[in-house]
């Protein structure tokens, strides 16, 4: 381990594994370590079910009615992936006219603007132009555009229109949902990016205790583990490895619920995402519900996993999520956790220590992707270009 690396990565959460893969594809010499013996970190998939009971200190063993423990792969922090997302419940003429406008919108073609300046007109004015009601506005902004607050209403409309367009195009790709979810849970994703890093020369070490991050003259120079020092030019890590360099900005409550039935009024869907906009429940933050089932190889046959999450706003977090839990009744078993929202105190450009943010309450990867792109830009000074990554891969292997 006494070598010098371009980048050392600590932690195997999805953010860290994706960045590890990206840096390896970019030709960097990468060492990736984790104190845990498993991939995923904070976003790990727990199997068997008995381990979930132990993790949450639930007394006794799971009842026999829950099937074999090995049939369960429960994500601690579920996130849906946008597939590329029409609204049968909202076929009012005005809303349809709005969706047609979004579908035709092209920020490079002024002929599609219909009198709206996408760089100056606030989204609030666009809704007004199409005479959309408050309920439809809440749905559009929070369930389609995936905003967490209503601040976007007074911002230029271009980004919001493109977000809604992404949802619509993702929905059109598969017909029923704009989202993807990996079989066997999200724990498969970090391992996939770890393999990508390894293909390009990255070195992985699990179950590796981290004794010290070595900094000289304000800049990282290496990591000490089991008496050995690996030197590096840059360091990527999750907040748990550098608690003195992060600050708490809030908390998230998550409740994992095991059910024996699909969610009411979802046409017995084996998976769904429910977003309760903050305005509907007199809150500042949306409430999210992610539902998956045996169809995704994450639960025993006939069972469903619903995970409710939101940003904590009061001294009684469990009361805050009651509107969501009521949608899920009856619930066989609940697992409740409250975690801190941690963010880096600085950009990392001086120390060259780049810290990811803890996962927020959302049930989609949009904010995680933003964090990945932000860290990449701070590390390299340039925007992340997925097409450039594909080209580099093709230069080496001559294939897509």
What this model shows, in words?
- It is found in: Cytoplasm; Golgi apparatus, trans-Golgi network; Membrane.
- This is Rab GDP dissociation inhibitor.
- It is a peripheral membrane protein.
- The chain contains eleven helices and 16 strands.
- It is an alpha/beta fold.
- It folds into three domains: 4-45 and 186-247 and 342-397, FAD/NAD(P)-binding domain (3-Layer(bba) Sandwich); 49-80 and 250-341, Guanine Nucleotide Dissociation Inhibitor, domain 2, CATH 3.30.519.10; 93-173, Guanine Nucleotide Dissociation Inhibitor, domain 1 (Orthogonal Bundle), CATH 1.10.405.10.
- The strands form four sheets. Strands 1, 2, 7, 8, 9, 10 and 16 form a seven-stranded mixed sheet that branches. A five-stranded antiparallel sheet has the order 12-13-14-11-15. It has a two-stranded antiparallel sheet with strand order 3-4.
- A hairpin with a 2-residue loop joins strand 9 (219-225) and strand 10 (228-237).
- Helix 1 packs across helix 10.
Characteristic key phrases:
400 residues, Guanine Nucleotide Dissociation Inhibitor, domain 2, Guanine Nucleotide Dissociation Inhibitor, domain 1, 3 domains, 11 helices, Rab GDP dissociation inhibitor, 7-stranded mixed β-sheet, 5-stranded antiparallel β-sheet, FAD/NAD(P)-binding domain, phosphoprotein
SSE string, helices as H and strands as E: EHEEHEEHHHHEHEEEEEEEEHHEEHH
Q: In angstroms, what separates the terminal alpha carbons?
A: 34 Å
- Quickly name the level 1 CATH class of the largest domain: Alpha Beta
Main sheet summary: 7 strands, mixed
Secondary structure class reads alpha/beta
Averaging pLDDT over every residue, what do you get?
87
Membrane topology: Peripheral membrane protein
GO biological process, one term: protein transport
Keywords: Acetylation, Cytoplasm, Golgi apparatus, GTPase activation, Membrane, Phosphoprotein
Family: Belongs to the Rab GDI family.
């Amino acid at each position: 381990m006494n070598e010098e690396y371009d980048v050392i990565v600590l932690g195997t959460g999805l953010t860290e594994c994706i960045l590890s893969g990206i840096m390896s594809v970019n030709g960097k010499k990468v060492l990736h370590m984790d104190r845990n013996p498993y991939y995923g970190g904070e976003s790990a998939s727990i199997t068997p079910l008995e381990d979930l009971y132990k993790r949450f200190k639930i007394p006794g063993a799971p009842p026999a009615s829950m099937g074999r423990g090995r049939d369960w792969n429960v994500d601690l922090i579920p996130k849906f992936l946008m597939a590329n997302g029409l609204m049968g419940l909202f076929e009012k003429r005005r809303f349809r006219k709005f969706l047609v406008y979004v579908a035709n919108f092209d920020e490079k073609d002024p002929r599609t603007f219909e009198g709206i300046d996408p760089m100056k007109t606030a989204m609030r004015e666009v809704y007004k132009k199409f005479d959309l009601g408050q309920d439809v506005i809440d749905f559009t902004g929070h369930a389609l555009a995936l905003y967490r607050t209503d601040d976007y209403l007074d911002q230029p409309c271009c980004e919001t229109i493109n977000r809604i367009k992404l949802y619509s195009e993702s929905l059109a790709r598969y017909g029923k949902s704009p989202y993807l979810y990996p079989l066997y849970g999200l724990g498969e994703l970090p391992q996939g990016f770890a393999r990508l890093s390894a293909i390009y020369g990255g070195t992985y070490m699990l179950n590796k205790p981290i004794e010290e991050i070595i900094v000289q003259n304000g800049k990282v120079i290496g990591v000490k583990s089991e008496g050995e020092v690996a030197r590096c030019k840059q360091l990527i890590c999750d907040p748990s490895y550098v608690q003195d360099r992060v600050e708490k900005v809030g908390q998230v409550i998550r409740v994992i619920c095991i059910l024996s039935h699909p969610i009411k009024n979802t046409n017995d869907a084996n998976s769904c995402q429910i977003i309760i906009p903050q305005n509907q429940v007199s809150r500042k933050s949306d409430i999210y519900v992610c539902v998956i089932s045996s169809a995704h190889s994450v639960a025993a046959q006939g069972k469903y996993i619903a995970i409710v999450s939101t940003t904590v706003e009061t001294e009684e977090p469990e009361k805050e999520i009651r509107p969501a839990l009521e949608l899920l009744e009856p619930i066989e078993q609940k697992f409740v956790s409250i975690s801190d929202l941690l963010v880096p105190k600085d950009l990392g450009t001086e120390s060259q220590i780049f810290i990811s943010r803890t996962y927020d309450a959302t049930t989609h990867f949009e904010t995680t992707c933003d964090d990945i792109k932000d860290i990449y830009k701070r590390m390299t000074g340039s925007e992340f270009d997925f097409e450039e990554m594909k080209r580099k891969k093709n230069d080496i292997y001559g294939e897509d």
